[in-house]
Every structure is written in C-alpha cells, then in structure tokens.
User: What shape does this take?
Amino acid sequence: MGAGLSPGARSAIFVNLLTEDNLPYYTTALASAFGEDGAWGEWMWRWTAEEGRHSIVLRDWLTVSQLIDPVVMERGRMQQVSSGVAPDPWSSALGPSAPAATLVYVSLQELATRVAHFNTAKALDDTAGYEIMKRVAADENLHFLFYRDLSSAAMEVAPSEMVIAMERVVKTFNMPGTGISGYHEHTVAIADEGIYSLLIFHDNVLTPTLRSWRVEQLTGLSSEASTARDRLLAHVQRVQRIATRLEEQRLEKLSEAPASAK
Assistant: This one.
C-alpha cells in the first residue's frame, strides 16, 4: 500500500487525518475559552461539523485508495484520540489573556493547516486525493479568515491584551498534531518534502498574519504590551534566520541525493 507515495507525502496525509480525528479536544478547548451560547456557540458547532466532515472524507478516500494501511490509520486514531493531547494556548496560566491567546492561536493554526493541506495536495500523484485536499484546504482558509477578522476586531477593543497574547502564543506555537506517535519523525519527512517547514510557517503563515494585524503600526499600547511587541518582532526575526538555515541544509541534502531518491 502507498506505492508511489514519497515518505513526506505519506507522513503528511497521515498527520493531516489524525489531526482532524482529534477534533473532540479542539471543540472542548474552544467551548472552555468562550462558552457554548449565542453566536459563538452557533459558530463553534458549525465549525465542529465541518471539521468532522474533513475527517470523514479523508478517511474514506484513504480507505478506498489504500494509500495507507487502514489498520495503521485506525491504530493511529485510537492512540491519538485516547491520549487527548492538544495545544493549550488558552492555559489558565495566561489568566485574563486566555481568550485573546485562543483567537491568536486558531488564526495561525487554521492558516497553517490550509497551507499544509494545499501543499500536500500538490505532492500527491492521485487525482481524487488532489481534489479532496484542495477542497479541505479551501474550507480551512475560510475558517482562517473568520478567526483573523475576529482577532482584528478584538485588537480594536483591547490592543494591548492581544499583543501580549501574540507574543506568548507565537513563541510556543505548535500544530495540533503534536500528540501523534512519531510526530517528530513525520514532521522531518514533511519538511524534507517541502510540504510544511519552519520557513513555510514564517513566510506563509506568521509574517502575513502579523502584517494583516498591523502589529508594527499599533499605537496606544501599554508599556507591557510595547515590550511584548518588541520581543515578538525579535522572535520572528530569529525564526526567519533559523528557518532559512534549515532550508539551505535541506536543499543541499537534496542536491547531494542520488537522482533515484529525489
């Protein structure tokens, strides 16, 4: 099974599926941050239904195509969902900033997921898989736009709180798949394939989102928020330097690999 799939593409679709499978914990976390009533509750339940649909279509496609052994997929799902591991930007340690941190995290996460899904589609030599991953990526982009715009509105109300949350979330940002067994090995394979890497995160997720929020142009910040912004911008520069170095190493390794391995 999976003949013709590169290790990076195989890891990407496996991680994509298990990330969607872990949906119950994301819904629980969002409900804890904002509650279940009113417009937020209506959005959250609709979001849950749409993300659940992603899990269904990905699993159905992989089962029919046999690109990944169904037994391996189910064992992975049981391990992932049984562990209940999910990123926790809304930690009580953030106190009053927990809702702001949640908005920042989901904005970055939805865009990162959209980018990863679309790049996975381009890495597949499977017409049905390509179309499915493109459609799922389009849904994730709509989710991103909602959260990004909601965050922009929150910044008009509480800019200092949002900037403080941004610095904390960006410095600790992890994708939802962190609880997957062998996650580190999968991320290395995915990065080697050029599907998703630290540089892609910097160039296609972090930088454009912060630019859309006009973080550098914000005025009227508290002294704590102003300091947090300085630390945030310095961190983004460090991420770029590290990511660029890693990408140079990847390209060098690729150029040295035998033609049959490329």
Remarks:
- The chain has a mean pLDDT of 90.
- DSSP finds ten helices and no strands in the chain.
- Residues 223-256 form the longest helix (34 residues).
- The chain has one domain: 7-261.
